[in-house]
Amino acid sequence: MSDFMPGTPYFDERPKGLLTWPKLLKIGLPIAILAFSAGYYFGVLIEVMLAATLLLGITAVIRR
User: Fold this and answer.
1) Which residues, 6 or more positions from 48, have their beta carbon under 8 angstroms from its beta carbon?
2) Cα separations in angstroms, 27 against 3, 24, 54
3) For residues 48 and 36, is the Cβ–Cβ distance under 8 A?
4) For a designed S-S bond to 39, which of 18, 22, 48, 49 qualifies (C-beta 3.0 to 4.6 A apart)?
5) Share of the chain above pLDDT 70, in %
6) Whole-angstrom Cα distance, residue 4 to residue 21?
7) Of 49, 25, 23, 22, the residue nearest 35 (C-alpha)
8) Spatial contact of 45 and 39, defined as CB atoms under 8 Å apart
9) Per-residue DSSP letter, 64
10) pLDDT per residue of the chain (64 residues) written in tens, 0 to 9
11) Residue 52 in contact with residue 35, Cβ under 8 Å?
């Protein structure tokens, strides 16, 4: 018997509440653009980028 099973990993349809890349980009991209634009406008772009990097790093460590 093969360890590879073709097809979708879901039985009938996607589970409710599953966060997929298209949905994540629709939510995250406008927020990121707004945050970086505000950082640029107020002259604190480096600080906003540093905060985003730290937040993503902390999230990665927690989810590991």
Assistant:
1) 35, 36, 38, 39
2) 36, 5, 20
3) yes
4) 48
5) 83
6) 24
7) 49
8) yes
9) -
10) 455 656 667 667 777 778 888 999 999 999 999 999 999 999 999 999 999 999 999 999 998 8
11) yes
The residue written with tokens 């991209």 in the block is 29
The size of the chain, in residues, is 64
| 21 touches 31 (CB < 8 A) | no
| DSSP result, 11-51 | SSSPPTT---HHHHHHHHHHHHHHHHHHHHHTT-HHHHHHH
Instruction: Name residue, tokens 């349809």.
Output: 13
Residue 11's φ and ψ, nearest 5 degrees, are: -70, -60
Which one-letter amino acid corresponds to residue 10?
Y
- Tokens 């979708």 — which residue? 8
Give the residue from 26, 35, 34 showing the smallest Cα distance to 53.
Answer: 35
